[in-house]
Amino acid sequence: MTAAVASRFDEADLDWGPLEQFARAAQRHHPSLVAGDFMWMGVVELANGAQVHLYKHVDTRSYLRLDYGGHTYRDREGDYVLCESPLEAIVGLHLQSEPRHRRGELPSDTWPVSRTGLSQSR
């Protein structure tokens, strides 16, 4: 368990990298996890120096907390606890079986992935 020592919610700190990497790795076994279905909410710095990015799912409103190494965390009353496995974090998102763009709710190019991260809707 590690306490958060700082929180930032400035767009200058926005980083889609951890989410994009995690979503790519999860796609084979969890195709319902799509980076474009998340909003970046901020970043917290932990007492151990790790930076954890907070991403909120647009449908379930559940958070995915990721560091740059792809580790997932859960929030326990302001402390961040490393998840036992990535699956623990994915299950906690309560995702439907198909992502929004595959269910026809969004065009597939709403959140195109680029080298610099996800761009906003056109």
Percent helix: 10-25%
Question: Mean pLDDT, nearest integer?
Answer: 81
Counted by DSSP, the helix tally is 2
How much strand content do the residues show?
Answer: 25-35%
Q: What spatial form do the alpha-carbon principal axes imply?
A: globular
State the strand order across the main sheet. Answer: 1-2-3-4-5-6
Oligomer: single chain
- Specify the structural class: mainly beta
Please outline the major beta sheet. Answer: 6 strands, antiparallel, barrel
Count all strands and give the number.
8
How far the N terminus sits from the C terminus, by CA atoms, comes to 40 Å
* pLDDT < 50 runs, ≥5 residues: 101-122
Order of helices and strands: EHEEEEEHEE
Output the radius of gyration. Answer: 14 Å
Summed up, the domain count is: 1
What is the element layout, followed by pairings?
Elements: E1 2-8, H1 17-26, E2 38-46, E3 51-57, E4 63-67, E5 72-76, E6 79-82, H2 86-91, E7 113-114, E8 117-118
Antiparallel strand pairs: 1-2, 1-6, 2-3, 3-4, 4-5, 5-6, 7-8
